[in-house]
Amino acid sequence: MVEATKHGATPLEGDGKRILMIFGSPKDNSLCNALGEAYAQGARSEGHVVRLLKLGEMAFDPVLHQGYDQSQALEPDLLEAQRQIHWAEHLVFVYPVWWGGVPALLKGFFDRVFLPGFAFRYRGVRSWEKLLEGRTADLLVTLDTPPWYFRWIYGAPGHRQMTRTILGFCGIKTRRLAEFAPVRSSSEEQRQAWLRKAETLGTRN
């Protein structure tokens, strides 16, 4: 479900940017969650309005059973997610890379929510409308693989999927992609430094 603010109350919206953070890890206690909370804290300190969408707490079927051949009714949590995406000026996706790409829960969220008529609309064979155009995104991504290896040996498939074939296809421009890696061999000191980095990123909206 959507958490309006850290303490559950919706602040008055002034000049601050409207930011929706989408947590793509199904785990409650994770480095991703800590990074996202740190980013949100930094953004709120600058007067931005931040709402949190934690996929692991939402009730929905992540499987698009019939593809686009049949309509699949959206659960209340997904309808609310669409409303929040329309509300937001800036989206922040926080997730781990698993098997080179995004977790199944996050991919299922895109499959169910970023539908024709909401995120894009085909005009012809090679032409489409980007219905979410005008929004920007930051990606906070954790990996066990060293970033250089993920990029130069594997070709960064998860990054290209997110920035180009999902967000870019719908008109959302990725502003920053911050990698926090490798997690498995990181020290407590390194993880604390990552949290400070995430908070700083939140202040730069």
UniProtKB/TrEMBL annotation:
Q: Which UniProt keywords apply?
A: Oxidoreductase
**Domain (Flavodoxin-like fold) ranges:** 17-198
Q: Does the keyword Oxidoreductase apply?
A: yes
Q: Which SUPFAM superfamilies match?
A: Flavoproteins
Single GO cellular component term: cytosol
- Top-level taxon: Bacteria
Q: Which family does it belong to?
A: Belongs to the NAD(P)H dehydrogenase (quinone) family.
PANTHER family the record matches? NAD P H OXIDOREDUCTASE-RELATED (PTHR10204), NAD(P)H DEHYDROGENASE [QUINONE] 1 ISOFORM 1 (PTHR10204:SF34)
Name of the molecule in the record: NAD(P)H dehydrogenase (Quinone)
Lineage, uppermost ranks? Bacteria, Pseudomonadati, Pseudomonadota, Gammaproteobacteria, Pseudomonadales
